[in-house]
Amino acid sequence: MKLAYWPGCVSRGFTTELHGSMAFSAEKLGIELVELDRANCCGAGVIAEHNQELADTLNARTFALAQQTGLAMMNICSTCQGAQSECQQRLDADSAYRAHINEALSGQGLEYIKGKDGFENKNFLWVLVEDYGLDQLASKVVRPLSGLRVGPFYGCYVVRPKDRLGYEQHPDRDIYLEKTIEALGGEVVEYDGARKCCGFPVITMNRETSLRQAGTHVGDAIDAGADCLVTPCPLCHLNLDMQQPDAAKIVNRDLDLAVLHLPQLVGLALGGEPKQLGMSKHIASTKWVEERLAGAAAPA
Amino acid sequence: MAEYTLKVRRYQPESGEGAYWEEFKVELDPSLSVLDGLLQAKDRDDGSLSVRCSCRAAICGSCGMKINGQSGLGCKTQIGEAQDLADKRASTHSAAPGRGSDDGSISDSPGVAEAEEAAPILVEPMGNMPVIKDLITDMESTHWTKIRRVTPWLLPHGEPPEREYVVEPESMIDITQSMACIQCGACVSSCLSMEADPDFIGPAALAKAYRFVGDPRDAETKERLHDLAEDPHGIYDCTHCFSCVDACPKGVAPMDQIMRLRRKAGEDEIEDPHNGHNHEMAFVKIIEQKGTLDEALLQQESYAPGVKGKLKPTRGAIEGLGKSLPTVLRAIKSGKARSLAKLIPGIHPKLPGGAQDEVKAIYRHAREHNEEFNIYIQGEEDVEPEPDETEAEEKV
């Protein structure tokens, strides 16, 4: 399997461990990634808030770059998925608008063509379940995550809005994390926050609201007995992990729950060492995850 | 006909007891609604089961509730579809007892179905509102108070015209979506910002605000925008989670209306004290200059734009930066942010090999050509003209 790969900004910024663990997991899975190193930021919804046409053109450029490779496109960020799907929906809905946007790209020798070779842009989670296949994934597992209790945390932009994210064709996209955790041999922990918002989008504007969301979800997962969370979104990771000590103050309780990027969880099951997967760069300690995988019993 | 189990969150204030779950078996066609199921249970099993309803056709907006944790109208949710969702969610229970309540996740407690048996359909009162009885919530204290908060009527200036106000039909397109609201409260029930900040003005009221901000007859648009941008629980308190978009039974897409309010406030260059406008402008500028996000520069510019030039950051900026300092220090300590580009604003690299110029060209094009303020394309398939039709047109 060979894919045009858009890593996004944050995986090369404050969560480099995501970029690194994706490279590790891809190699183990036998997925070849062709990085779109000339592509630009998806705008994260902020540029669309400012100017929809600008956001649509920027993402049309990324799609066109991916189409030049002749490969399907993969991202590793729920936020990229959401922002890009929104633009793609507007582009795909209207040929006159698409032509107008392509006019801006023509000077660069680029064109976004709707549906070219069945063009799709999918999060790693969707690729794993729909294209790679969970059976094949399970067959590659060398260290089953037996006994590891994992709370899924999706990130809003791969679960909502349903009518934009391919749920008609793939109605189970909102339970893929659970399926993946099970395929890796782990146990799914059900808790309240799995499909809620991490609060990251308002961290600058309303720090308290933002951290209350993050802290509440982490706390709920702990109460449900989770050993860790797993997320396909690096922005969720920033709020749930990097901000976790401050979130703990806002919700007034001890937290300290490891938050893994999806490729890290996959990488662990494929035999990767925690340090190799960048887990030492996390703020919330991942020690407990290592101990659990080494066979430590759950606390009573 | 099929049999369904409705598991209803019940509460009777006069009993002095807390809320509890009760199961009702109902029998009806899968195409009928969850509300139909509830009314059958009320008719056959327990007349005290309380639910607000009237039209049963998604017009009156009375029967807002949560079904399998998702906010919507009882009359617009087919019971067969609700069963499918309940079954799907039950299929993922591999560990841990069910818990929780809102949006998307399976609601509170017992929930786990016996193997082979269909999962119960969970029905709860709307969220973010006090419960009066069973599925009936107090919409006054949250919903209606907030609606009144945004002055939900037209404020034209000058003498009223002798007859009606005349407006171009095209000028109303921008607000038709927000006018479709039936005040059911489903968006408020689903709002994840309000869950963390009960004072948030919220999706229904802000969508209503856009209905007037976007109305060409309204003369106090600027005042409205200032008010909503400056309120700490206003337009910049929305966490952009799309919950309200999925909850709304009438396609109002309240979050989209909030983004339109932000866009308008930005156009008017309204400086809010919450760094909302600064954050947006900094983000847009950084991508123009760098192509990908310079996180350090975004942080600095969101709190104190142009701080180097002015040398006079505001108190809010100093506070904001101060509060994020521990996060930055932790990032350095853990090794997340040990490169200079992640710490010093502005040295983040541009895109390679002329790609940055391509991004800049896109900005120029968008600025020159952007005629439409809001682009309304709600996923309609474009109808490409049939080749023979095009030819026929050309011949004419």
Molecular structure report:
The complex is a heterodimer of chains A (300) and B (396). Chain A has 300 residues and is an alpha/beta fold. Chain A has helices spanning 16-29, 46-50, 52-69, 78-93, 95-106, 124-132, 134-140, 176-183, 207-223, 234-242, 244-251, 262-269, 287-293; strands at residues 2-6, 32-35, 73-75, 121-123, 149-152, 187-188, 228-231, 258-261. Chain A contains 13 helices and 8 strands. In chain A, 65% of the residues are buried. The mean pLDDT of chain A is 96. The N and C termini of chain B lie far apart (57 Å). In chain B, 42% of the residues lie in helices and 9% in strands. Chains A and B meet through helix 2, helix 3, helix 4, helix 5 and helix 8 of A and helix 6, helix 9, helix 10, helix 11 and helix 12 of B.
Mean pLDDT of chain A: 96
Rg of chain B computed from alpha carbons, rounded to a whole number of angstroms: 26 Å
The rounded Rg of chain A comes to 19 Å
Number of strands of chain B: 7
- Name the beta content range of chain A: 5-15%
Put simply, the count of helices of chain B is: 17
- Share in helix of chain B: 40-55%
Helix content of chain A: 40-55%
* Major β-sheet annotation of chain A: 4 strands, parallel
Percent range for β-strand residues of chain B: 5-15%
Spatial order of strands in the largest sheet of chain A? 2-1-3-4
Tertiary shape of chain A: globular
Distance between the termini of chain B: 57 Å
Structural class of chain B: alpha+beta
The poorly predicted ranges of chain B are 95-115, 384-396
Which structural category do the helix and sheet elements of chain A fall into?
alpha/beta
Mean pLDDT across the residues of chain B is 86
The helix-strand sequence of chain A is EHEHHEHHEHHEHEHEHHEHH
Termini separation of chain A: 44 Å
